[in-house]
Amino acid sequence: MSLHVLRIGPACTIQDQGRFGYTEQGLSRAGAADLMALHEGAALLGQSPQLAALEMAGMGGEFEASQDMRIALTGAPMACSIDGTPAVWNASHQLLKGQHLSLGAVSRGSYGYLHVGGGIASDPFLGSRAVHLTAKVGQVAAAGDALPVGQDDGDAGQKIAVSDRFQGGTLHVVRSFQSDLFDDATRARFEQTEFTRGPRANRMGMQLDSAGEGFAAKGQLNILSEVITPGDIQMTGTGNPFILLNECQTTGGYPRIATVLPCDLPRAAQTPAGGAIRFKFVTLEEAADLQAAFVRDLGRLPSKTEALVRNPHDISDLLSYQLISGVVSATEKGDPQ
Amino acid sequence: MTHADQFPMVRNVGLDGMLVTFADTMTETSNRAALAFRGMMEAERPSGVIETSTSLASAYVRFDPGQLSHVECEGWLNRLLADRDWYAARLPKGRKFWRVPTVYGTDLAPQLEDAAAAAGLSASDAVERLASSRVRVLTIGFAPGQPYLGPLEPAFDIPRLKELNPMVPEGALVLAISQFVLFSGPTPTGWRHVGQTAFRCFQPERTPTFALNPGDEMQFVSITPDELDEIRTRNEDGYGGAQIEEIEA
């Protein structure tokens, strides 16, 4: 069984939760930019959040089902329809054999997700299906691809209410081992500054712009290259911040002023170009509590789905539906009187 | 977890990591200490540890703070530090010596002359010194399978560029701060591009996927562009014509 790609945006990749344990060999984890969207899709389909989905940056595509299958749509909302009939976002649907799913541009946020019942069953590499473009592990999905779909037998027609994480906002950060390379005044100014997401952004990282001078560290061109973790906020030579994401390098020499908590990375990654971002320092203890709450929320997602009831106003071809199916005539022969 | 006065020091890396740093400069002993300390972390691996790695003079552990608290993790690392003199540790066994054919300068490696000038050397003198240097894989990072190599002689302690090179190709040998990096894929960089090889550090389609290990040694032997072209026509193993020897323990 497979999902055929008829046309597709330029930056769509298969992603799961990423591959762990290869930092020593310089291979960063990759994995979905919006981990929560991955879990929401799994909850809508009643399946494991370890399964892979298609991550679509900015623009979706058009897909055709080779067999009846279930799909779910999560993350940054996109214009979407099945055979021309609008379909609800943050919901699961049946896609019948031969039907076309059309996904357009994101209306808010950056990364939309297309999940299939049974997950996308591409060949794993070192324990994960996550495409890692900078490492040349896998490649972007292209027109003509047939995305393999795993075994599946569940129901569709579920929806889920999601937290709005598609317009930037305040990201919690902790001090990290290089924060002291920046003096107190620079760190304070960093926390008081409103940034906007710049045009340079991909799965490796996203550039932030701000008015005023940059955020330089002392002697920052000659510090020892040191380990990087996703969420690190790195200053390049000119003092411009980048938030590093799941496909970042594993080590680097530009100093990092702070690190975004893992639980706030979905919102960081989903911030659209021009979206406003602020940073708030928290202690390690507060950070551990925020992260624990996020992990609990992910675990509760399967209990938060509910039946999707279609609004008749959304059904363009209402008159063609058999609305009285199952009603029997009182006068018909064979009436059980 | 603020700065301690003495090395080794233990500091946090974001929410879910800790770093044990043996020096603020890369030295032979600090690099060896990091490799040996990481070996001990792997041997013990308490519940909640996700992975470990080394950088030039540090060992890193990533963990789940929901399973292993910051206090517990720091306590574990301090106990390991007190266990022995990590600066006296030996290099790992099973290391290899790789001699990799390299084109210095020309349009294949256009920043050789710039790097030589920054080092106060003529281009030919710089090539002679670089091509005869035997360097060690100090750590692997920034990109998959990609080694940091050194130390080179002090003349090559030149700073990174302020503006990034937009893109250098796979197999590029780049130079800064008395170290080489051999690029495993096309990458923007703040280091100067001084040499070009046909060596592939990371081959996802092959086993072994990763060519090098920390502690291996390398030399980048000077060849002509024509010789490199010839090597590329018979580069099935991806090692770019390298000669490989086992290093005696």
Automatic annotation (TrEMBL), chain A:
- The molecule here is called KipI antagonist
Question: Sorted alphabetically, which Gene3D superfamilies does this protein's record hold?
Answer: Cyclophilin-like (2.40.100.10)
Q: Which residues form the Carboxyltransferase domain?
A: 24-298
SMART domains to which the protein is assigned, alphabetical: AHS2
Q: Keyword check for RNA-binding, yes or no.
A: no
Keywords for this protein: ATP-binding, Hydrolase, Nucleotide-binding
The keyword Nucleotide-binding belongs to this UniProt entry's keyword annotation: yes
Q: Which InterPro entries match?
A: CT_A_B, Cyclophilin-like_dom_sf, PxpC
The record ties this protein, via SUPFAM superfamilies, to: Cyclophilin-like (SSF50891)
Against Pfam families, the record matches this protein to:
CT_A_B (PF02626)
What are the protein's GO molecular function terms?
Answer: ATP binding; hydrolase activity
UniProtKB/TrEMBL annotation, chain B:
Q: What GO molecular functions are on record for this protein?
A: ATP binding; hydrolase activity; kinase activity
Q: Transferase as a keyword?
A: yes
Task: Give the Carboxyltransferase domain ranges.
Answer: 8-212
Does the keyword Nucleotide-binding feature in the UniProt annotation?
Answer: yes
UniProtKB keywords: ATP-binding, Hydrolase, Kinase, Nucleotide-binding, Transferase
Query: InterPro entries recorded for this chain?
Result: CT_C_D, Cyclophilin-like_dom_sf, PxpB
* PANTHER family in UniProt: 5-OXOPROLINASE SUBUNIT B
| Protein name, per record | Kinase A inhibitor
Q: Record the organism.
A: Falsiruegeria mediterranea M17
Tell me the classification of the organism that encodes this protein.
Bacteria, Pseudomonadati, Pseudomonadota, Alphaproteobacteria, Rhodobacterales
Q: Which gene encodes it?
A: kipI
